[in-house]
TrEMBL record:
Membrane-topology descriptor: Multi-pass membrane protein
Official protein name in the record: Type II secretion system F family protein
Localisation per UniProt entry: Cell membrane
Domain of life: Bacteria
Record-annotated Type II secretion system protein GspF domain positions: 183-311
One of the Pfam families matching this protein, by short name: T2SSF
Transmembrane segments: 16-37, 114-134, 292-316
Amino acid sequence: MNLSDFISTSFTEDEFLILAAGLSVFMICIAVWYSLLETDPSSKKVKEMSTLRESMRGDYLNPIQRKKLTGNSTNQMKRVVEFFKLLKNEQAEKLAFALSQAGKRTPEALYRLLFYKLIAPIVAATVAYVYVYVLKAVDLEPMAKTLVTITATVIGAKIPDILLKNSITKRHDLVKKALPDGLDLMVICTEAGLSLDAAFTRVSKEMIAVAPELADELSLTSLELGFLPERNKALANLAARVDIPMMRSLVNALIQSEKFGTPLSQSLRVMSAELRHERLLKAEEKAARLPAIMTVPMIIFILPPLFIVLLGPAVMRTVDALSAM
């Protein structure tokens, strides 16, 4: 049985091999061409910041305007949220600020979060009810079944908040790691004669590939410095969005520099040196904790095999000698 038995008589085996080889060469050429394409990682972020700039301009000129949403799924979520009037709740403003801390500043993100917070406990309660009462997968007392359903409902209600908080924490950690390098670039920009707005813009463009989170925050602060009537308000917003000690110290130094007229480059250089020293101290602290952390693994995984290798032959010879006696 050969390959010609499975194909038509008008299509020979040689022609099939030629066609397969041609398709293989074509796919290889496509793969090589796609790998050699120069993709700009900052294009997506630039587009987002351009959209954000337009929305900020609209909010500044007409704060009560309504934003349009795109996508059928988001529109359905919007209808549900507006039907229950969740946007009129005081919690909506806090959630919008938390989303801005997580880097999600579009109206769609707020509608999605409110929608998920609404349906998450309902879905969790439904799943628990079906699992406990309908399927009867576990044999529990009536009170225990009720407690399981209530617990599942509470956990479902907390899941969106937990995920949002984790997202904020991860973003703050990434900003914290990239901030010393960003300050070094800001020192170079300010010593070259750039203003604070231009320095933020330049640093955000330079760091968008290696630290998009920090670049996003600096770019947004640069926009707010140009739109808001008070520059200190824009810097305070930066400290509120990135609520870490490093950023608060940087914002305080920038506010004092503008208030008292001290050289901006000198303030940034001092802050950069402090952040470098703080990061070095944290590295030394982790290195000092390493012996204590390695003690337990050494006792459990290293010392027993070592004792077996060293004392095993001696014990075996002793046992053989005693058995011979």
